[in-house]
Amino acid sequence: MTTTTPRLAPSPTSALSLSRTTATAARVLRQLRHDPRTIAMMILIPCVMLLLLRYVFDGSPRTFDSIGASLLGIFPLITMFLVTSIATLRERTSGTLERLLAMPLGKGDLIAGYALAFGTLAIIQSALATGLAVWILGLDVVGSPWLLLLVALLDALLGTALGLFVSAFAASEFQAVQFMPAVIFPQLLLCGLFTPRDNMHPVLETISDVLPMSYAVDGMNEVLRHTDMTAVFVRDALIVAGCALLVLGLGAATLRRRTA
Amino acid sequence: MMNKESGPLADGTDEEPATPAVHADGLTVVRGPRTVLRGLAFDVPRGQITGLLGPSGCGKSTLMRSIVGTQAKVTGTLDVLGRPAGHPTLRTRIGYVTQAPSVYDDLTVRQNLDYFAAILAPGRAAAERRRTDVTRAIDDVDLATHADSLAGNLSGGQRSRVSLAVALLGTPELLVLDEPTVGLDPVLRRDLWNLFHDIATRRGATLLISSHVMDEAERCHRLLLMREGEILADDTPEALRTRTDTDTVESAFLHLVDQAVEASRTKEHTR
C-alpha cells in the first residue's frame, strides 16, 4: 500500500458553493434514478388526472379550461412538497444529514441542491402536463404556454421549500405525510380552485390573500385569459417566487450543525 | 510510564505539533434533563489508537459527537487538533462514523463515496484525486467487489463498512469511529483492526474508537474507560492490567467498575 497518498486540499465551507450544490443535485437525481417507479408516478399522474378532468367536464369545456389551468400550477406544488418532505426527513433520520453537516457542506448548498434537482424534475413534469393539456386535450389558453410553465416551475420550488421546512417538524414518515393535508389542503380549498376567492366569506378571503397557492392559481388564470404578460401576472409570479425563497430560508434555519 | 511501547509520536520523527489531538477539561454535556458528561478531563495523543470503552449509555457517543462538533450544549474546554471543537476548518480534517451506518441506501457504494468526496474536495480540478481517493477507500474496507451494488442491498456489516469508507475519504488527521466493528465476523474485525493500525502508523492519523468488545481494547495504544458520564481510567492496556493486578482489560475494567460502585456507595453511607 502506498503511504504518500496526496491529501485532498481542505476547502473552506462557504455559504454557497456551485460545485457542492450541483454535486448534491446530481446525487438526489441519482437516488431517484434507482427508483424508476417514483419517477414514473411523478410524471404520469398529473397527465392522467388532466385526462380524467377533461372528460369529467366533457360538457363544459370552459370549466375544464379554468380548473385545468389551476391544476397545472397545483400538481407540481403537491408532488414536490411530498417528495421533498420525505427525502429530507430520510436525510435527517438516516444520519446522512448529520454526516453532511459535519463536512464542509453549506446549508445553502444542500437546500439549493434539492431545489435544483426537484426543479429539474418539475420542469419535465410540467412540460409534459402542459403540453398534453394545451395541444391534446384542447385547454384553451390565450397567453403563452411558456408562462404556464414558468408558474408551474415557481410552484414546484414553493412545494420543495414547504416540504423542506415541514420535514423539520416531522419525527416520522407518518407525520410527514400528514403535513400534506395540514399544509396543502387549506390552500387548495382557499386558492380559488373551487369557487372564486371574492365569493368566499370575507375572513376566508383575507386568509386566502396571504396563502401563496392563491397567487399560483391567479397567475395561471391570468395566462389563460390574457395574451400578454399582465401586471397582475408579474405580481403573482413575484409573490410565489418570494414565498418560495422565504420558506427556503426558513428551511435552512431548521438545519442545525449541532443537535441535542 | 509506558512510553516505551507507545506509537510513532514517541520516537520523535513525527513532525506533528506537540498539542494533543483532543484536549478536554471540565467537559460537560447536558441532554434534556440529564447531564450526560460530567466535567471530563483527558487528552488523546496524536498518531495513536485510543479506545473509548464503557457500557452502553455511559456517554461514549455523546463524547464522540462533541469532538466532531455535532453535539449541542457542550460546556468546558474541548480542543480538537488545536482548535475548538466544531471549528469550520476542522470539517475536512476529521472523519466520523456514527453507530448506525449513515449512507444513502438508494445509491451504489461508489456513488455514495463519489458524492461525499465531492463535498470534501469540490470542483473539476480535484476530480482525478477524488477518483483515486474513492478507489482507495473502497479497497481499504475490502468492498471492491461490491462497489457497484446498492448500499441498501448490502448486509449490515457491509453497509457499516461503506460508512467507514466515507470517513476515510480525504485522508483525515483524526478518525472518530463509533463502534465500527459491531456485527462483523472475526475475520473482518481482525482485518479492520489491521487497517486501523496501518492508518495510525503509516498515515500518522489519530484514531478514537469506541467499542464495548473488550478484546478489541487490547489492540489500542491507550484506553479511556467510561462509566456514567465519567472517566474511570485513562492509561495503556498494559498499565491498566498491572495496576489492577489482572490478566485482561475486561477484568481490569470490571475491577475498576466495582471499585467505583463501592466508592459511590460509601459516599452515600457517610452522607
From TrEMBL, chain A:
<feature type="transmembrane region" description="Helical">
    <location>
        <begin position="144"/>
        <end position="169"/>
    </location>
</feature>
<keyword id="KW-0472">Membrane</keyword>
<dbReference type="GO" id="GO:0046677">
    <property type="term" value="P:response to antibiotic"/>
</dbReference>
<dbReference type="InterPro" id="IPR000412">
    <property type="entry name" value="ABC_2_transport"/>
</dbReference>
<feature type="domain" description="ABC transmembrane type-2">
    <location>
        <begin position="33"/>
        <end position="258"/>
    </location>
</feature>
<feature type="transmembrane region" description="Helical">
    <location>
        <begin position="39"/>
        <end position="57"/>
    </location>
</feature>
<keyword id="KW-0046">Antibiotic resistance</keyword>
<dbReference type="Pfam" id="PF01061">
    <property type="entry name" value="ABC2_membrane"/>
</dbReference>
<dbReference type="InterPro" id="IPR013525">
    <property type="entry name" value="ABC2_TM"/>
</dbReference>
<keyword id="KW-0812">Transmembrane</keyword>
<keyword id="KW-0813">Transport</keyword>
<dbReference type="InterPro" id="IPR051449">
    <property type="entry name" value="ABC-2_transporter_component"/>
</dbReference>
<feature type="transmembrane region" description="Helical">
    <location>
        <begin position="69"/>
        <end position="89"/>
    </location>
</feature>
<feature type="transmembrane region" description="Helical">
    <location>
        <begin position="110"/>
        <end position="138"/>
    </location>
</feature>
<feature type="transmembrane region" description="Helical">
    <location>
        <begin position="176"/>
        <end position="195"/>
    </location>
</feature>
<comment type="similarity">
    <text>Belongs to the ABC-2 integral membrane protein family.</text>
</comment>
<keyword id="KW-1133">Transmembrane helix</keyword>
<protein>
    <recommendedName>
        <fullName>Transport permease protein</fullName>
    </recommendedName>
</protein>
<feature type="transmembrane region" description="Helical">
    <location>
        <begin position="237"/>
        <end position="255"/>
    </location>
</feature>
<dbReference type="InterPro" id="IPR047817">
    <property type="entry name" value="ABC2_TM_bact-type"/>
</dbReference>
<dbReference type="GO" id="GO:0043190">
    <property type="term" value="C:ATP-binding cassette (ABC) transporter complex"/>
</dbReference>
<keyword id="KW-1003">Cell membrane</keyword>
From TrEMBL, chain B:
<protein>
    <submittedName>
        <fullName>Multidrug ABC transporter ATP-binding protein</fullName>
    </submittedName>
</protein>
<keyword id="KW-0067">ATP-binding</keyword>
<keyword id="KW-0547">Nucleotide-binding</keyword>
<dbReference type="InterPro" id="IPR017871">
    <property type="entry name" value="ABC_transporter-like_CS"/>
</dbReference>
<feature type="domain" description="ABC transporter">
    <location>
        <begin position="22"/>
        <end position="253"/>
    </location>
</feature>
<dbReference type="InterPro" id="IPR003439">
    <property type="entry name" value="ABC_transporter-like_ATP-bd"/>
</dbReference>
<dbReference type="GO" id="GO:0005524">
    <property type="term" value="F:ATP binding"/>
</dbReference>
<feature type="region of interest" description="Disordered">
    <location>
        <begin position="1"/>
        <end position="26"/>
    </location>
</feature>
<dbReference type="InterPro" id="IPR027417">
    <property type="entry name" value="P-loop_NTPase"/>
</dbReference>
<dbReference type="Pfam" id="PF00005">
    <property type="entry name" value="ABC_tran"/>
</dbReference>
<dbReference type="InterPro" id="IPR003593">
    <property type="entry name" value="AAA+_ATPase"/>
</dbReference>
<dbReference type="GO" id="GO:0016887">
    <property type="term" value="F:ATP hydrolysis activity"/>
</dbReference>
